[in-house]
Write a structure and sequence with these properties.
Layout: H1 4-13, E1 15-25, E2 30-42, H2 45-54, E3 68-77, E4 82-97, E5 100-107, E6 117-124, E7 129-135, E8 139-149, E9 152-161, E10 173-183
Antiparallel strand pairs: 1-2, 1-10, 2-3, 3-4, 4-5, 5-6, 6-7, 7-8, 8-9, 9-10
Length: 186
């Protein structure tokens, strides 16, 4: 599989993004809206190596060829609650499955838990959807970003209650999020 569509997806992600989201908290039957400003910039090979190191992972692939980003964001909920965070992430392709590029998605700091974490990603070059699955302590987060065009993305977040055993299905949703992300620069 050619990595051209994969790299194009990430090239389009560089820059500023403005997002309107709706979160449905199913465990407490509440709906909340929020606004987020994102800033995405490329990582140096040195910082990519640091992300690999904190996750105790190695790769034979050239670091320059791996998409890596610093993601900073500031979110304000409709209730006035504010959250800001900055983290570094790296995508390491491992192969293909049923037409999807698959691999590891590494972060130096996870969203839900303040620690380095290795997740799985799948990328569909035809639909330009990036699907990321993270197993946290209490939830499993399935995050989808679909690139509609270089200036518009659609986001879907499904947070499942983590089953007591890994062989059990994900069938209890705790949160569902939807968002529209529009590029604000370049």
């Amino acid at each position: 599989m050619s990595l051209e569509a994969f790299h194009h997806f990430f090239d389009c992600c560089i820059g500023g993004w403005s997002t309107e989201r709706t979160y449905h908290y199913l465990t407490r039957q509440e709906v909340e809206r929020s606004h987020t400003e994102f800033a995405v910039r490329s990582l140096s090979a040195e910082t990519k190596a640091q992300v690999l190191a904190v996750n105790i992972m190695e790769t034979e692939q050239a670091l320059e060829q791996l998409p890596g980003f610093c993601l900073g964001f500031h979110t304000v909920s409709e209730h006035g609650e504010e959250v800001s965070q900055e983290l570094n992430m790296l995508f390491v392709p491992r192969g293909t499955e049923d037409g999807w590029l698959v691999g590891d998605y590494l972060r130096d700091r996870a969203y839900e838990e303040a620690r380095p974490i290795v997740s799985a990603f799948r990328f569909n070059p035809e639909s330009r959807e990036l699907l990321m699955t993270t197993h946290y302590t209490r939830i499993v987060s399935v995050d989808s970003i679909t690139l509609v065009n270089p200036r518009l993305r659609v986001r879907r977040i499904l947070n499942y209650v983590r089953p007591t055993r890994d062989d059990q299905p994900l069938d209890t949703l705790a949160l569902v999020g939807f968002g529209v992300e529009q590029k604000t620069d370049g």
